[in-house]
Amino acid sequence: MSDLYLLWRNLFRRKLRTFLMMLAIFVAFVIYGVLGSIHYAFEHGVDSSADNRLVVVNKITFIQPLPYAYVGKIAAIKGVKNLTFANWFGGYYQDARNQIGTFAVDPESYLRIYRDDLRIDPAQRDAFIHDRTSMVVGEAIATKYGWKVGDRIPINSNIFTNKADGSHTWELTVAGIAYAAKESFNTSFIIFQYENFNESKTFGKDTVGWITLETDSAAVNDKVAATIDDMFANSTAETNTQSEKAFGKAFLAQLGNIALIITLVVGAAFATILMIVGNTMVMAVRERTKEIAVLKTLGFPSWRIWRQVLGESVLLSLLGGVPGLLVAGLLVTVLSKAASGAIPGLALTLPVAGLGVAFMLLLGVVTGFLPAWNALRLNIVTALGRL
């Protein structure tokens, strides 16, 4: 009689109890797979930023603007190859709940900086540059709302007022649709002309939200950053220059500490499962005290019984966890389509799945170690004396 057969029969001798434990593990790994995939997508998207791109923001907080005059001064610094700037618009479409990442930019320099990240038709690019009331829409937004080139769309702001009519609306023409050149690049955005925005807003004239620059190489990043911050030290708007990766993580931090939230939720789920499964396994082995004693009497080595009990726990974890990860993969796929590209690269990736399998094995070992150890140390005389 093989060990695998004995293991399987012992695990399913109480089918309802086994099913409930598998269900608990299944739910835990569905939660892990979905949240872990979202976290990985956020982190991977930020980490894919170019190594030689820096972002200059106000030292107090990146919500505070910088004078437009800084653009020319920074462009003249040795080691700065390309430069652009942007303003956060606080945009939404029709309803304030339909938030869209909307930025007022300098068209030519912005598209030059992000030339390796975005694909846009050359004719559409030229139209955007030459039409002050136009915008370029990311593929995800164009798909979500069914916008086409030439459409005239009202974009609202929850921050700025249009001095032309006192409303919070800017009427913009779709000059082009931008597609991601990299899978991790988010196309859930709108960019429109800074010059139009600067002339029409009621406050904050001649200021920019942040300045993005491209250095000659990543090797000069620290020197260029220090030069910029020293230049504006003790001014009314001191600067903080950091890598684009660091800026992206700070921007995402507005949503809260995603890593901490996911860790707490997944940690709570696993702690609960650990207690439930661990306690149930101890009870299951205690119920089989007589059988274990008989097996030892028949000559079964103690270590073979130890392997049986520990293997039972690991198998239970895998039978609940693997289907949980598979369902999580399906849910993530559905979520990715529903989000219309708002979270680029959202998928149950190999690193997330691999870590999930490692967690399954760890869960099986942790919950099965104590009952397996008790079975290993079980004294035959003492065990039979309990009958």
SSE topology:
Layout: H1 3-11, H2 15-47, E1 53-58, E2 66-67, H3 69-75, E3 80-88, E4 91-92, E5 99-105, H4 107-113, E6 118-119, H5 122-130, E7 134-138, H6 139-145, E8 152-157, E9 169-180, E10 189-193, H7 194-200, E11 207-208, E12 210-215, H8 221-231, E13 239-243, H9 244-252, H10 258-287, H11 289-297, H12 302-338, H13 350-377, H14 380-385
Parallel strand pairs: 5-10, 7-9
Antiparallel strand pairs: 1-12, 1-13, 2-11, 3-5, 3-12, 4-5, 4-8, 6-9, 7-10, 8-9
Q: If helices are DSSP runs of H or I spanning 4 or more residues, what is the number of helices?
A: 14
According to DSSP, the number of beta strands is 13
The helix fraction, in percent, is 40-55%
How widely separated are the two ends?
26 Å
**Class by helix and strand content?**
alpha+beta
What does the overall shape look like? elongated
Percent strand: 15-25%
Strand order of the largest sheet: 4-5-10-7-9-8
| Main sheet summary | 6 strands, mixed, barrel
Q: What is the number of domains?
A: 2
Overall mean pLDDT: 84
Radius of gyration (CA) equals 29 Å
Element-by-element helix/strand order: HHEEHEEEHEHEHEEEHEEHEHHHHHH
Oligomer, anyone?
single chain
- Contiguous low-pLDDT stretches (5 residues minimum) are none
Describe the 3D structure.
- With 387 residues, this protein is α+β, with helices and mostly antiparallel strands.
- The protein has helices at residues 3-11, 15-47, 69-75, 107-113, 122-130, 139-145, 194-200, 221-231, 244-252, 258-287, 289-297, 302-338, 350-377, 380-385, and strands spanning 53-58, 66-67, 80-88, 91-92, 99-105, 118-119, 134-138, 152-157, 169-180, 189-193, 207-208, 210-215, 239-243.
- The radius of gyration is 29 Å and the shape is elongated.
- A hairpin with a 6-residue loop joins β4 and β5 (99-105).
- The longest helix is centred in the C-terminal third of the chain and has 37 residues, at 302-338.
- It has 2 domains: 3-45 and 258-385, no CATH class; 65-236, no CATH class.
- It is built from 14 helices and 13 strands.
- The mean pLDDT is 84.
- Pfam families: FtsX (PF02687), MacB_PCD (PF12704).
